[in-house]
Design goal:
alpha+beta
Length: 191
């Protein structure tokens, strides 16, 4: 496994996040922040070099968003697209200085439902849309990497009593990650 990139200064991450949020809002594109930034909100913050978004658009809308992002000074990582040709309709990677911005369209019905349940949270006096804690857990279980399980445990340790367990169990069953969810809910240790 390649080493993780060095952490980016939090101010640079926030600046890139806010710039991209402004772009999405100017185009009236529903979005939610997922990944490590969402883990920092719902669980234990950890170093990251990127910001991850899920956006509600079609393949043409994603392409148009990329073109507008470039006009506003973001750079499309065309090498990433070349190395990941099956992702073109679903995902693009932008850079803003040294910050990576991964933008994905919903890949399944759960991702679509998660957009419906997103939460507006205040970050430095601005309202920003984040994935809900429950949907973040399901997304992390779908990904299934060791880091994702650690993230799930971190969210559970902070919000266990506030989570809609029935909602998570329903999606976990449909997505075939029910055993994984049951394990972490029982307090199973990772690593």
């Amino acid at each position: 496994m390649p080493p993780e990139p060095p952490p980016i200064h939090p101010d640079r991450l926030r600046l890139s996040l806010f710039r991209f949020v402004e772009l999405l809002e100017s185009r009236h594109i529903p979005y939610m922040i997922i990944g490590a930034m969402a883990v920092a909100i719902w669980g234990q913050p950890r170093a990251t070099a990127d910001v991850d978004f899920t956006v509600l658009t079609d393949p043409e809308g994603l392409e148009s968003l990329g073109a507008e992002a470039e006009r506003q000074g973001f750079v499309i990582d065309r090498q990433w697209l070349e190395w990941n040709p099956l992702q073109r309709e679903f995902q693009m990677r932008l850079t803003s200085g040294e910050v990576l911005i991964d933008v994905s369209r919903p890949r399944d019905r759960h991702d679509e439902a998660a957009l419906d349940r997103r939460r507006a949270l205040e970050v430095e006096g601005r309202s920003v849309w984040f994935v809900s804690a429950e949907d973040l857990i399901i997304m992390k279980l779908k990904a299934g990497r060791p880091r994702d399980f650690e993230d799930v445990v971190s969210v559970l340790s902070r919000h266990r009593d506030k989570l809609d367990i029935r909602y998570m169990e329903d999606w976990a069953w449909r997505l075939r990650v029910y055993d994984e969810l049951s394990y972490v809910l029982r307090g199973g240790k990772i690593g």
